[in-house]
User: Fold this.
Amino acid sequence: MKIIGDPKKVAQEMNAFKESAKILSNKDESLIKKYPNKWIAIVDGKVIESATTEEKLLAQLEKKGQKSINLIVRFISKTPRKLIL
Assistant:
């Protein structure tokens, strides 16, 4: 099996992404209060940018030179989602 890249770096990147994903599941209500009906960008478990449209958010991230590695972009609806099982 051929390993691509440094295993330690890959593990760090995976952990950083996991932290970013956690913020979406654990703090959904606080995100709704702080960023209602906005697009947010999360890196390393922290919201780094927000905007009213996805296009504006992506432009802001590009202006800052933010790379897409470990970046999660999501719309935070003011109305919590309901799951139908």
